[in-house]
């Protein structure tokens, strides 16, 4: 689960890396998060997987890699499970 980390730089976001998964969840100052795939070069547009916005007790996700779609999730953990599944489909 994502935990807020204290700001240690002037960047307008917080980062949390999920080492074994090679995902990074970046909290944006304007609210929400982006999920990136650290297995890909950061300058590769395919590394951006999704935008996440919290809406009360649920999260709306816009997946920006094929298949592009939106969805609702109950936790960040289930979003990361879906990201893992999407990575395996992309690699296969």
Describe the 3D structure.
The protein has one helix at residues 76-91, and strands at 13-18, 23-28, 33-37, 48-55, 58-63, 69-73. With 92 residues, it is α+β, with helices and mostly antiparallel strands. It has one domain (13-91). A 6-stranded antiparallel β-sheet has the order 1-2-3-4-5-6, with helices on one face. Strand 5 and strand 6 (69-73) form a beta hairpin. It is globular. Mean pLDDT is 78; it is low at 1-13.
- What share of the residues does DSSP label as strand, in percent? 35-45%
Q: What is the approximate shape?
A: globular
Give unreliable regions as ranges. 1-13
Task: Report the radius of gyration as a whole number of Å.
Answer: 13 Å
Count every helix, treating DSSP H or I runs of 4 or more residues as helices. 1
User: What does the largest sheet look like?
Assistant: 6 strands, antiparallel
Spatial strand arrangement across the major sheet: 1-2-3-4-5-6
Topology as a string of helices (H) and strands (E):
EEEEEEH
Helical content stands at 10-25%
Query: Number of folding domains?
Result: 1
Number of strands: 6
What class, by secondary structure content?
A: alpha+beta
In whole angstroms, the N-to-C terminal distance is 27 Å
Q: What is the typical, i.e. mean, pLDDT?
A: 78
